[in-house]
Amino acid sequence: MSRLDNILKLGNSRLHQISEPIRENELSEAHMVAIEMNKLIIDFRREYGAGRAISAPQIAYKKRLICMHNEGMHVFINPELYDESDEMMELWDDCMSFPELLVKVRRHKSCKMKYRDLNWEEKHIELKDDLSELFQHEVDHLEGILATQRAIDDKAFMWRSERKV
Ligand SMILES: [Zn+2]
């Protein structure tokens, strides 16, 4: 059994539940979960050559926690997006909950995000392009929304193997 089997897949109704905020006294538990999530991203990349981040509900931890792997582990607790740009972008999105499927979605080209880090400090960051669409995808997970629900039309689906680079 691979660690990747722990990721809930498209069709599992738990992916559509709304996740709960993390409280300060849950930080050490959240940290341990984030370490597992980080390992999953590394494994997923080895297998599929893609995958930048994962949200906690994807491994059935129904809390508002996102882990990104980018030359190390980055943890975002109770993230909230704001100041979303009017300007939109279209892209073929993917998800660790449906590894072989790509979905064309429309996302805000930039936004800002408020979150807490592992020291419970409140942070604000500006997100553009790749990071903007990535965190819109991940925050959607916390609301129980999958990229398939953001498909721009009825032809917005493609197997990863059909992608021409
Ligand atoms: Zn996803």
General description of the model:
This protein is an alpha+beta fold and 165 residues long. Helices cover 22% and strands 33% of the residues. It is built from two helices and eight strands; from the N terminus they run αβββββββαβ. The strands form two sheets. It has a five-stranded antiparallel beta sheet. The structure holds zinc ion. Zinc ion binds next to α2.
What is the strand and helix layout of this fold?
Layout: H1 27-48, E1 53-55, E2 65-69, E3 73-82, E4 88-95, E5 98-108, E6 110-116, E7 122-128, H2 129-142, E8 157-159
Antiparallel strand pairs: 1-2, 2-3, 3-6, 4-5, 5-8, 6-7
The structure holds zinc ion (ZN).
Residues 95-97, 137, 141 line the site of zinc ion.
Could you give a short account of the major beta sheet? 5 strands, antiparallel
Could you say how many structural domains there are in total? 1
Provide the CATH architecture: Alpha-Beta Complex
Counting DSSP E segments of at least 2 residues, the number of strands comes to 8
- Annotated CATH topology: Peptide Deformylase
Name the helix and strand elements from N-terminus to C-terminus, one letter apiece. HEEEEEEEHE
Question: Residue ranges: pLDDT <50 for 5 or more in a row?
Answer: none
Shape: globular
CATH superfamily: Peptide deformylase
* Rg: 15 Å
**What compounds sit in this structure?**
zinc ion
Which range best describes the helical content: under 10%, 10-25%, 25-40%, 40-55%, 55-70% or over 70%?
A: 10-25%
**CATH class, please?**
Alpha Beta
Multimeric state of these chains?
Answer: single chain
State the strand order across the main sheet. Answer: 1-2-3-6-7
Distance between the termini: 31 Å
Number of helices: 2
Estimated share of beta-strand residues: 25-35%
Class computed from helices, strands and strand pairing: alpha+beta
- Mean model confidence by pLDDT: 96
